[in-house]
Structure formats: structure tokens, C-alpha cells
Write a structure and sequence with these properties.
heterodimer; A: 250 residues; mainly alpha; B: Rossmann fold; 2 domains; 3-stranded antiparallel beta sheet
């Protein structure tokens, strides 16, 4: 079954790549404008170690950014769920923080935090924090009122209600937030690398494009996409495992 | 035989499943008023719940039965003029357990953990160990001993409501508020659960809100019909015999017929006004 379902996307991909290859050769497009897929594959073979080195760097940035961003977003959501005053003051602040385009602050972050990994993690945290905090807070607040009635009559403290009822009930919403975060985390890291860095796939792309090594830039792009997809599925699998009581959609 | 191990929070722990005789107070309320969309659901309503007895409140949907129950349970903020007194002159807060139409089981906890939710939420360690022991005994009693580690989503509706019943009993509260607890079950499962509830809740002061006349006829020591706009409760019907009454016995069926007649009369009055 799975094998048969894979046939169509694989055929489509192969067809598109063949078209691309043919278009480049037939129209004599210069390879620094659009490299044919075959040249991109060759770059993987020739420069695999270089790609791996930069991919590792970017992966570390994304992973650390994801951990820090999810932690920060969760902490903010929990505090806001627990303290109404914090929610009243905090929500507008969070929304405004999202109105500022990440691209616009990227140079500032590099200025403040340097060319190293800190500015990339900060960038990733900025794009990850919001989807996690908003989805989680939503989940924490949208709880079956019957559970809250029950807890109240059982004499539960506000902290017990938060951690034993609201928190587990909000895990599906939290998971949605984290999935979005996993999808956008590479954006944060790569923007950081574009603005100023000495390593990473984003840095490699900028460097090779400037030198007309477009095929290598494409190869970096492919690796970046692969990291994004792998990250998404890894996070998705972990979240499903953490919530066995949530019915799975087939 | 009872031994009090945790005097805090009014949640005295009693070793037996049954509350000690005489511990359940009678409850008198008066001046109850609840508005719904600026219209009074009821205004100045009074009701007595006799000690250690089950009082059924029967009435059409939307008449305000649930609001009245929530008011007594302290889940609705009362308006001035509302009086709620227990016969032992002690406050009711912390002495009421609650069972709703939905089982309210937490999907991430297994059967045993759900049954002992109260002690878990209060963070009482010693009490939790005790509650677990009693929960295992009670869950065996209701036929769920082999499902202690099961998650709620693997249980049938009747099993889930049995866990909810055990959770209510584990709280060892002398007063129990039940809001159509068996409304979502099929007929036979409902009869079985009514038998269980009547047996296990005997001796507690129970308010059972229902729209099923047969349920009221089986379980109520005292049965009120609540109807009208704003709603009032009529003089109670007090059927003879000890609950749970046989669902097919002539006496039970006569009570059911009388309740149906009262409900129909109330509906006719409503339609004329």
C-alpha cells in the first residue's frame, strides 16, 4: 500500500527534474543562473563534507533555537494562564512583538549578539516563541468547564488546576504550536546567517551565490529543506508519543 | 466504624465506603434567584433536602434545574437574599461532591487515577494512598477491577459513568449533587447504574436532577416537579418503598405515571401563558 502510494509523487518529482534538466540544456541557460539538477547532484558528491559541516552548524542553531523558543513560549503561556493581570498586560505586548518583521531586527541582533551562534538562536526564538505561546495559551484557557467545576468542588488549588487539568488538556494545542514552530525555526536561523555569520547553510548559500557557484547554493537549499522536513516529522512523532490519549487521524 | 486521618479541608477520610450514619445534614434553601438572559429562571424559590435522603428534581429542559443545583453546590455566585443552611449549622463548602451528565473523566489518566482525582488535586499524599485502596475496592464492586489501568477512551459509556460514580463516592462527602448523571446511557445500562448509585449513595443527602420520570420514581425518596416561568417546585411526591425501586413494579409505574401527568400539566400551563 505505502509503496503504491509513493509511486505518484516520485514520478511527479522525477518528471519535473527531467523537465528542468532538459530546459537548462535545450535553452543553454548559464549554469550560474540556473544549474541543472545533475550539477546539483555532483555538488553533493564533490562537496559533501563542506555541506555536512555547514548543515551541522545550522542544525545546532535550529535545535537550540527550538528548545529555547518552545521553553520561553510555554513559560509565558503558563504565567499568563495563571495570572489574569499578566495576561491583560502581556497579550498586547506579545502581539506587538510579532508586528515587528524579523528581517528588520536581524541586523540589530547581529550587532548586539555578534556573528556567532547567539544571534541565530535569538532569531529562531523570535519566530518560534509566538506560535507556541499563543497556541498554548489558547489551549490552557479553553478547557471543559465541567472539569473546572469538578476541581473546584474537590478543593483543588489554582496551581493544581493549572498543572493537573489545564496543562494536560492544552497539550494538543501546544503540539499544534510546536509543529508550526518546527516549520518556521529554519527561517529564523537562516535569516540570521544571511545577515551576518561565518558558518551555516544560509551563510554558505550567500557566499556561493556571490561567487557564481549557484549549483552549490542549490545543494545547500536542498539540505536545508531536508532538515526542515526531518525536523517536522521528528517533532510530530515525539508529540504523538507524548499524548497517547489523543485519537490519531489516519 | 470510621477513623479520621486528615482533619484538614473538611475532607475527613473514612475507612468504610458508606458515610457514618447521621453525618449527612438536611439542607434548606430559600430566596434562590437566577437570571438567564435578563429573565428570571426562578425568583425566591425554596427547597428542602431531607438528611440522608435522595431528592429528585424533575422538569423540562431549560427550566433551571441545573442552575439550582449549581447554586446549591456553590458553582454559581448567589444573589443577595439567597439562604442556604445545613441542619448542623456548618458551612456546606467542602462537603459536596458533584456528578454531571458527562463523566468528566480526564482522558490522560487511567481509571484508578481518575477515581482518585480529588486526593491527587489536593496533593494529599497519605490520603491518596488511602483513596487508592478504597477505589480499588469500589471499582471491583462496580465490576471494573480488571480495567484499573485502562484509559477512559477504551471504556463504554456505562463503564465511564461507573468510574465517575466511584470518583464521587471516594470523595466521602455527605452531600452529593447529581446533574442528569445517567442521561446519556442506554435504557438497561441506565437501570444498572441507578441500582448501583442507590446502593452506594444510601445515607447521603442527594439532589438528583433528571428529566426521566422513571429514574425519579426509582431513586427518589422525595420527588419535586420544577416548572413554570419563573419556575417553582411543587409539593413533593413521596413514594413508598426503599430505592432503588423495581422499574417494573406497579407502584413504581404508578409513580412514573403521576410524574408524567404533573409534567404534562405544567407544560400545558406553560403553553397557555
Amino acid at each position: 500500500m505505502t509503496g503504491r502510494r509513493l509511486v505518484r509523487p516520485v514520478l511527479i518529482a522525477a518528471g519535473l527534474l527531467a523537465l528542468w534538466e532538459a530546459a537548462v540544456w535545450l535553452n543553454s541557460i548559464p549554469h550560474y543562473i540556473l544549474p541543472p539538477p545533475s550539477l546539483v547532484v555532483l555538488e553533493f558528491i564533490d562537496r559533501g563534507d563542506l555541506l555536512a559541516e555547514h548543515a551541522l552548524w545550522t542544525t545546532i542553531e535550529i535545535a537550540l533555537g527550538l528548545v529555547a523558543g518552545v521553553s520561553l513560549g510555554s513559560a509565558v503561556a503558563l504565567l499568563m494562564a495563571r495570572f489574569a493581570a499578566l495576561r491583560a498586560w502581556g497579550v498586547p505586548l506579545v502581539v506587538v512583538s510579532q508586528a515587528v518583521p524579523v528581517f528588520a531586527i536581524a541586523p540589530l541582533l547581529v550587532l548586539w549578539l555578534g556573528y556567532g551562534i547567539a544571534s541565530k538562536i535569538a532569531m529562531a526564538v523570535l519566530v518560534i516563541f509566538f506560535p507556541v505561546a499563543s497556541a498554548f495559551l489558547d489551549g490552557l484557557r479553553r478547557v471543559d468547564p465541567g472539569w473546572l467545576d469538578l476541581a473546584r468542588l474537590m478543593g483543588a488549588s489554582p496551581a493544581a488546576v493549572l498543572f493537573q487539568i489545564r496543562l494536560p488538556a492544552a497539550l494538543p494545542a501546544f503540539a499544534s504550536g510546536v509543529r508550526v514552530a518546527a516549520a518556521v525555526a529554519p527561517i529564523g536561523a537562516v535569516i540570521g546567517e544571511w545577515v551576518g555569520a561565518s558558518a551555516g547553510l544560509g551563510y554558505l548559500m550567500m557566499q556561493q551565490l556571490a561567487r557564481g557557484q549557484t549549483a552549490l547554493a542549490f545543494a545547500a537549499l536542498v539540505v536545508l529543506a531536508a532538515i526542515g522536513v526531518a525536523l517536522y516529522f521528528l517533532v510530530d512523532a515525539l508529540l504523538r508519543r507524548a499524548m497517547p490519549w489523543i485519537p490519531q487521524q489516519s | 466504624m470510621s477513623s479520621v486521618t486528615a482533619p484538614s479541608e473538611g475532607a475527613a477520610l473514612i475507612q468504610t465506603a458508606e458515610p457514618p450514619p447521621g453525618a449527612a445534614p438536611a439542607i434548606a434553601l430559600s430566596g434562590a434567584h437566577v437570571d438567564f438572559e435578563d429573565q428570571p429562571l426562578f425568583d425566591g424559590l425554596a427547597l428542602d433536602l431531607p438528611a440522608g435522603r435522595t431528592t429528585c428534581l424533575l422538569g423540562p429542559s431549560g427550566v433551571g434545574k441545573t442552575s439550582l443545583l449549581r447554586l446549591i453546590a456553590g458553582l454559581l455566585e448567589p444573589l443577595p437574599g439567597f439562604r442556604l443552611v445545613a441542619s448542623d449549622d456548618r458551612p456546606l463548602a467542602g462537603r459536596i461532591a458533584y456528578m454531571a451528565q458527562t463523566d468528566l473523566l480526564l482522558p490522560w489518566l487511567n481509571v484508578l487515577d481518575n477515581a482518585t482525582l480529588g486526593a491527587r488535586l489536593r496533593g494529599e499524599r497519605a490520603a491518596l494512598a488511602n483513596a487508592r485502596r478504597r477505589a480499588v475496592a469500589l471499582l471491583s464492586d462496580v465490576g471494573l477491577v480488571d480495567r484499573l489501568a485502562a484509559r477512559p477512551d477504551t471504556l463504554s459509556g456505562g463503564m465511564r459513568q461507573r468510574v465517575a460514580l466511584v470518583r464521587t463516592l471516594i470523595e466521602e462527602r455527605p452531600v452529593v449533587m447529581m446533574d442528569e448523571p445517567f442521561g446519556a446511557l442506554d435504557a438497561i445500562t441506565r437501570l444498572q447504574l441507578q441500582d448501583l448509585a442507590a446502593r452506594l449513595l444510601a445515607g447521603r443527602t442527594v439532589l438528583l436532577v433528571t428529566h426521566d420520570p422513571l429514574e425519579a420514581a426509582r431513586l427518589g425518596h422525595r420527588i419535586h416537579v420544577m416548572a413554570g416561568k419563573p419556575a417553582t417546585v411543587d409539593a413533593p411526591l413521596e413514594p413508598s418503598g426503599v430505592p432503588p425501586r423495581d422499574a417494573t413494579a406497579p407502584g413504581t409505574l404508578a409513580t412514573q405515571a403521576e410524574l408524567l401527568r404533573r409534567l404534562a400539566d405544567a407544560a400545558a400551563v406553560d403553553a397557555r401563558s
